Amino acid sequence: MGTSEIFLIALTIILAVPWLAWRLLDRDDHAPLVVVQIVGGILLGPGVLGAVYPAYYAFVFNPQVIGALNGVAWWAVSLFVFIAGVELDLADAWGNARETLVTASCALLTPLVLGALAAAGLLTMSGWLGAKGTWRQGVAGIGMACAVTALPILVLLMEKLGIFRTPLGQRMLRYASMDDVAIWGVLALILLDWQRIGRQGLFLAGFALAAWALRRLMVRVREDDRWHIALIWLAAVGFAADWSGLHFMVGAFLAGAVLDAHWFEQGRRDAFRHFLLLAVMPVFFLSTGLRTHWGIFGGNWAGWACRR
């Protein structure tokens, strides 16, 4: 059987199994579909069903298929975070800069510090650090993982609660956005090297200049052309951010944040986001679970590892 056929089998499983379980359980008020998709990815991955039926996982989710799914997932989350950036009102964020900075800092530092303290204890046990990892990197990395916002999940939950476009929703979005950008800054410090700093400085300078030019262009073209230009802009900024070490998701959010929401008709923005949630975001939500390996480090039950 060819790779394209196996890919479509995998896609059928990804789209059908979580949705059927969600519908049959009829627990929309308790567990939104996205939660079922994330849990479904873990259950369908190598750590659970793949461990019971390894031949199934090796056939359906072989390296070629996983590579194709990862490509879909990367583009899907880039588009989703981009739209979240477009929806963010930068003028409102700037007008409430002090409140945003204080609240976002508390929301970031509290789980970061608590996670780092927990990591300091965990790292006294064998198996938690890789061969090339240092204690400092481990503590900061686990703290960062506890502090990350998971912006796509937050947006989905706000939509579910009906607060996405309310003043409260905008506050939550700008707090989370600042936190996630700061998190990637922490990651850059963990992996600190002079080449990365130079690249990041070059990216930020180039991005500021390109964003200024893009904004001047966008007010001069039709809305249909704006959508095409926006997608080209998204791909280019995502690449540049990833090249600099800031991660493509940071680039995707920044690419959207410098655009004004009123340049794109609200109904089309909503339809585009709903299409993403229906057609491609399930691949992203399940992809993490499909790559999760529950490991026994060094022959003990010290913890689990998520390989990316």
Can you walk through the features of this model?
The chain is mainly α and 308 residues long. 75% of the residues lie in helices and 1% in strands.
Order of helices and strands: HHHHHHHHHHHHHHHEE
Global geometry: globular
Mean pLDDT: 81
Largest sheet at a glance? 2 strands, antiparallel
Summing up helix and strand content along with how strands pair, one would put the structural category as mainly alpha
Strand content of the residues, in percent? under 5%
Distance from first to last alpha carbon: 27 Å
- The Rg value, from CA coordinates, equals 21 Å
Low-confidence stretches: 296-308
* Number of separate strands: 2
Q: What percent of residues adopt helix (DSSP H or I)?
A: over 70%
In spatial order, strands of the major sheet run: 1-2
Number of separate helices: 15
What's this, in brief?
With 308 residues, this protein is mainly α. It has helices at 3-25, 33-44, 49-52, 54-60, 63-87, 90-95, 97-122, 135-147, 151-161, 167-190, 194-218, 223-244, 248-257, 266-279, 281-290; strands spanning 292-293, 305-306. The chain is 75% helix and 1% strand.
Comma- or semicolon-separated keywords:
308 residues, mainly alpha, 15 helices, globular, disordered C terminus
